[in-house]
Write the structure tokens for this entry.
Amino acid sequence: VCVHDLEPLGQKILLEREIISSVSFTNPDSAIAIKLEGSTFCRINENDHVLLNVTVPGKNCKTAYKIAKSIDDELQQYLQFASSVNFGYLTSDFNNLGTGLKIKYKLHLPSITRSGLIEKVFKDLLAQGISIKYHHNEQKTDFALGSLYDISNEFSMEGTEEQQIQKISNIVENLIYTERKTRNELLAKMP
């Protein structure tokens, strides 16, 4: 469906659900293909020609990758993607060169936030090539609404898809462990 053919309310709903981005409104050729239940979609002609997104609940990144890979394999039978032996997939965003794989987790980190450890977490993750951003904070203030954060790989050129999945999965497991440990420490200090 062409994004410009959607009614304004439909556009707003898809934008809020992060199925389309604001870039869709500037390109008259942008389009979207959505699987009925909404967990899988494909953006067309936004920042890149094709962006495939698969969302699964929990920490099941490998399942999401298998779904995305099967769709990618099917698309490659009909489309030719720009690629290079040295750089992998060629995209308009340098960070997406290589595998083109962007892995994102949404984490609720209230204890880490409340304890003041979040700044250290930001620095540690950035040093490892991992991005952490405030989730759904349109005002761009210095806090995450509801202590929700998006954790994602910064670059897709580092290693294979499987190595990238393993790296970020390990980091997320460590963050969950730290969140639980910090929560227990905060609870122990309460009267």
About this structure: The first strand starts at residue 31 and ends at 34.
